[in-house]
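User: Um, any thoughts?
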Amino acid sequence: MAGGRGGRVRRGLLCRAVAVSLDEQACLRADDDWAHASLGTYVHGDGVGWPAMPAADLPGPARYLREHSVGQIARRIGDGFEDMAIKSVQMYDYLPYLFLYGAMLIIILTTCREIIGPRVRANTSLVIFLVAYATVYLLAIAFYYPTSGTGTARFLLAHLTPLFFAISYLISRTEIAQARWRLGGVRVGTAHFNGLVLAVLALDVAFRLWPRLMTTYGGF
């Protein structure tokens, strides 16, 4: 009787010790991937508030830098950018529009320097903010990829609307809207570009958008 009770106690203590050990390992590696993050701060309530854990067990930037080499951090960020490229092709069809607007932005920046230059100098702080915004968020999304559990698509989607708006705002400025470029003997302008975007969008809505909405969930 006593031996049976003692055996149950020992087994219970052993299971508790194993659980604590696994939990500690999960906390140590919570910043490496979702499988460990889901067993670390997640199970201690970080979804509803500050996790109920000792401060020494909490993952953080200083701890991460101590426990990871520069090569490991670079590989993590590289994997994140690779996932961005893959998800951009496999998920929502924003890639054609990204190419279109990106190409138009490059054309404007390289052929309308006499117009862009004064605007950049007059809005230096805004340009610095936009460059910093893009750099920080791209690196942050790439870095977060392993612990996201779903990939990078949902984080990229949040930034596409302001990106397209910013480029559209630039294209709509009077000096840019009046600019012309020669393409195969034909003079084209921003109105032709807007017409091309509208045509691509119309075709997407008619033939591609609705079936993808039925099969692609929320950027995952």
Observations:
- The chain has two domains: 2-57, 70-215.
